[in-house]
Amino acid sequence: MIKIPDSLLIDQKIAQEILLQAQVQGMQISYFPSKHQLLIEREQAWLAKIFLSWTTTWSENQGFSRNEDAHFALALIKSGQAAVGYFHRGQLEDHKVFRAYMVRKKQGKSQIKHLKTKGKSRAGSRIRLEETLRFFEEINERLNAYDHQFPLDFWGISCSKTLWPFLFSSSSPPPFSSDSRQLIELPFHVSQASFEELQQAGKLLSGFHLLLSEAGKKFFSALFNSKEESEEDW
């Protein structure tokens, strides 16, 4: 018997087999649009969570359905740097990396955190604040351009909650609200908001990812004893 890790990258066939077993056993299957995720439970205990591919749709009546014309955009945002990209059928078609002078050199503290404690009286602080505001305007202008050009299914975002007020209160607001059903916070860590991480994020979102509880490993073990699956740490 192979050892099953907590997190697996699986294909759609395995995902369908897991759902079939769950349905046969009368388990509860819930879909959460805010995560594009399925949750499988038995007697109020979770067994499996399946993060669906962003090139796949889900309905209770039909289950999985391949979206042959999938469109999604991602915004990876950190203090001072952001990477924004548009993906079609899982392929990165357009991207832009933004940078801004938002970190105070001596303290290494972002201008946003500094404003909460010291205000914005000094010239350097004012410059950093202006850079911060322009930073989010440029990000949102790019996102709005995607919204005007493409029929987007999802917006993916990786952004600290500290930065959300600047994103959504910008003079150029994003093409989605903070509670939009199309907006999904990415379920994995982004460290640098770089072009390379944007590419990697697109690849991760184009696959199915399975999380299993200890009980879930035991229940679904038969599916993995006869198959070698690729692993991915989410």
Automatic annotation (TrEMBL):
<keyword id="KW-0378">Hydrolase</keyword>
<keyword id="KW-0255">Endonuclease</keyword>
<dbReference type="InterPro" id="IPR041175">
    <property type="entry name" value="VLRF1/Vms1"/>
</dbReference>
<keyword id="KW-0175">Coiled coil</keyword>
<feature type="domain" description="VLRF1">
    <location>
        <begin position="68"/>
        <end position="208"/>
    </location>
</feature>
<comment type="similarity">
    <text>Belongs to the ANKZF1/VMS1 family.</text>
</comment>
<keyword id="KW-0963">Cytoplasm</keyword>
<keyword id="KW-0040">ANK repeat</keyword>
<keyword id="KW-0677">Repeat</keyword>
<protein>
    <recommendedName>
        <fullName>VLRF1 domain-containing protein</fullName>
    </recommendedName>
</protein>
<dbReference type="Pfam" id="PF18826">
    <property type="entry name" value="bVLRF1"/>
</dbReference>
<keyword id="KW-0540">Nuclease</keyword>
<dbReference type="InterPro" id="IPR047139">
    <property type="entry name" value="ANKZ1/VMS1"/>
</dbReference>
